[in-house]
Amino acid sequence: MTWLVWRQHRLEALAAVTVVAVLAIVAAPTALHLYQVTALLRHDGCLGGSPDVNCGTAMDAFNATSRTLQGIVPLLNILPALAGAFIGAPLVAREYEDGTWRLAWSQGVTRLAWLRRQLLGTLAVTGLSAALLTAVLTWWLSPVNDVNGRFTNNGFDFTGVVPAGWALLAFAIGVLAGTALRRVIPAMAVTLAGYAAIRYPVEFLLRPRYLPPAKTWGLPFAQGTGLATNDWELGLDPVAPGGRTVLTGAQFDQVQHTAQASMNRAATSPATYPAQLDHWLTAHGYTQVATYQPAGRFWAFQGIEAGICLLLALAAIAVAYRLVSRRPF
Amino acid sequence: MTATADQAAAGQSAAAVESSGLGKRYGRTWALRDCTLSLPEGRVVALIGPNGAGKTTFLSLVMGLAEATEGTVLVDGHPAGGPGALARVAFMGQDHPLYKRFTVADHLRMGYELNAGFDLPWARARLADLDIPLRRPAGRLSGGQQAQVALTLALAKRARVILLDEPVASLDPIARREVMTVLMTRVAETGATVVFSSHVVAELERVCDYLVVMSRTQVQLAGATDDLIAAHARLIGPGRAATGAAGGDGDVPAGVAAVLERSASDAQTVLLARLSGPVADPRWEARPVTVEDIALGYMAAPGERYQPSPRLSVVSGSQS
User: Fold this and answer.
1) Is residue A267 part of a domain?
2) Do A15 and A163 have their domain in common?
3) Which residue in A194, A292, A322, B160 has a CA-CA distance of 20 to 30 Å to A276?
4) With contacts defined as CB-CB under 8 Å, which chain A residues touch B98?
5) Pairing label, strands B70-75, B161-165
6) pLDDT of residue A50
7) Which residue has the higher pLDDT, A308 or A65?
8) What is the predicted pLDDT for the residue at B314?
């Protein structure tokens, strides 16, 4: 049966390998350049610690080189969806659509055994290409992560087990959609829509809340957050004097108005206004609180997100199994 | 089902296909109802009936492609659709589905990989005889060639029961004859049971030795052709001029169980009848009928049913 699975899905396997190879070839020159730039940045002490004033120019150079990369890489989030649409969705749907299910399921192998072998084969292709792609992207993004931190979206999305988790989930959505709809094109459309409908809420609503965020209180204005590069900063909020009462936007606007009124009497110039404001706020006891996910939680978060994907994928596959075993025709 | 239970079930029945109260409903429409059949081993069974009679549904249920709404069906003693049945039954679908991008050789390889005992040399030889190129994708074969490839796949499986849904529908008359010959040879060589559906009644005589007629989702007639021929006759008797006063259309001789067809003129009356005993009335002459006559007669009289209980001599013994 392994031969059959390979014969039926070798084009998909070839396409997956091609995508990874093309990406590796495209990535190589940019990546090598970025490695050189970051090496210089590190040598000049511009990474971590207290950056030198001269680092501004160097960072500009780095940003110029990495901008295209950082623009392109998020687009690669669609790859799991494509794997789901082009490998998962047609897996059963094409058999139904072409009528070949009657050929496939009248051989000496039960339909559930058939489905199991098909799933194992195509999952191997999907998983392997996700792993290879992750390896390429991890290498590619490594210099960017050194500067921006890997807990940022790109770093988190293309490192470790999360990419494979999403690929697995998209694939399972595709298999389920194809089994339920029995038509390839509608199943592909539903797969893309279903993937987006799960991906975005998880990424933007759940991910920052996998664990209760850490907070650093009492940060003075006019200074950074004091967070490490690999910490994931979720927010920086003003705090009322003396206490731990976070100010709402409206409350802080009120405070700024008061500050402005008192500073106008001191005749400040627009150029120095921000610094003056910070000074005023600090002088009046206002502080800031940084909300963040510590860098040390990176792999816990990877595990949680991959686990969510895995559970949803298993549920989808289980439903697909039921649909196939029910023999509705 | 465990292997032991499977074997126990197999021991109880020597019928190739045994269905009991089998029914299938799609939504609110019944496609097959109350189908109780016992198809004996080693026969060529013709499943005849108009479109929509339930032939395809019955074959799908036996193959395990569809799940019964009610009743049961055993293949060589094994529940349809289970591993035991799948190893013993081969199937060719009505529109002979093939993988369009697979070559003919790919299909043979698939059959070989998925079926223990797949007869690869036989399949290659048959396709070579038919001049069907092994390297051509199935999508580029003619309809007739595709049907032949599908049929070859089904036959090469060397199954105990071979189900063919309209196997000759897309073949020309010469190819039909060849296919029917291959089917009969296969039965003779392997002792398999072939069940084929058709809405074409011609040539049944030469091919099948067991007949099932279905209509309106139910089995109307089932029996060995010898038994059916013995139980039916065309009766020629007095016409309206002679019997008009006596009983008219209702006039049948003793020994007639049912009248399937009646055509009466002043001169004579011709009946296609099922007999319950010998017709001794000297005014009536009994002539033998063909299987085609019987099949057409029942199809024309959908209310008539006849399903003699299978003879013990047919049912007993042959399970190995």
Assistant:
1) yes
2) yes
3) A292
4) 100, 103
5) unpaired
6) 56
7) A308
8) 40
What residues make up the domain containing A312? 2-30+77-209+296-325
User: Does a structural domain hold residue A44?
Assistant: no
> Is A61 domain-assigned?
no
Expressed in angstroms, the distance from the first to the final Cα of chain A is: 24
pLDDT given for residue B316 in this prediction: 37
Q: Is the pLDDT of residue B198 over 80?
A: yes
Q: How far apart are CA A237 and CA A281, in angstroms?
A: 13
Q: What is the pLDDT of residue B206?
A: 80
Structure tokens at B32: 């097959």
Which ranges of chain A would DSSP assign to H, the alpha helix? 2-43, 55-72, 78-83, 89-98, 101-104, 111-148, 153-157, 162-181, 184-200, 249-265, 273-283, 298-325
State the best of A2, A97, A107, A110 to mutate against chain B, taking most chain B CBs within 10 Å: A107
Asked if CATH classification 3.40.50.700 holds for the domain at B3-224, the reply, yes or no, is no
Question: How does pLDDT run across A84-107, given as a tens digit for each residue?
Answer: 999 999 999 999 999 999 999 999
Q: What is the average pLDDT score of chain B?
A: 86
Please tell me whether residues A100 and A230 are part of one structural domain.
no
Alpha-carbon torsion (B115, B119, B124, B130), positive or negative = negative
* A58 assigned to some structural domain: no
With contact defined as beta carbons under 8 Å apart, do A106 and B91 qualify?
yes
**Yes or no, beta carbons of A4 and B113 under 8 Å apart:** yes
Same domain, A200 and A221: no
A157 and A242 fall within a common domain:
no
Q: Is A296 exposed, middle or buried (0-12, 13-18, 19+ CB in 10 A)?
A: exposed
Is residue A159 domain-shared with residue A21, that is, in the same domain?
yes
A106 at interface of B, judged by CB pairs closer than 8 A: yes
Give the mean model confidence (pLDDT) for residues A196-209.
Answer: 94
Token digits of residue B185 = 């040879």
Average pLDDT for chain A = 88
Q: How confident is the model at residue A11 (pLDDT cuts 50, 70, 90)?
A: very high
Number of domains in chain A: 2
Q: A interface mutation test: which of B110, B119, B160, B166 has the most A CBs within 10 A?
A: B110
Q: At what angle do helices B104-114 and B143-156 cross, to 10 degrees?
A: 20
Which strands form B256-264's sheet, in the order they lie side by side? Answer: B256-264, B268-275, B232-238, B285-287
pTM across the whole model: 0.87
Nearest partner of A40 among A28, A52, A29, judged by Cα: A52
Together in a domain, A225 and A248: yes
Q: Which of B315, B59, B46 is nearest to B184 (CA)?
A: B46
Q: Which pLDDT belongs to residue B315? A: 39
For residues A199 and A237, membership in a common domain is answered with no
Residues A200 and A220 occupy one common structural domain:
no
Closest CB to B87: pick one of A108, A327, A328: A108
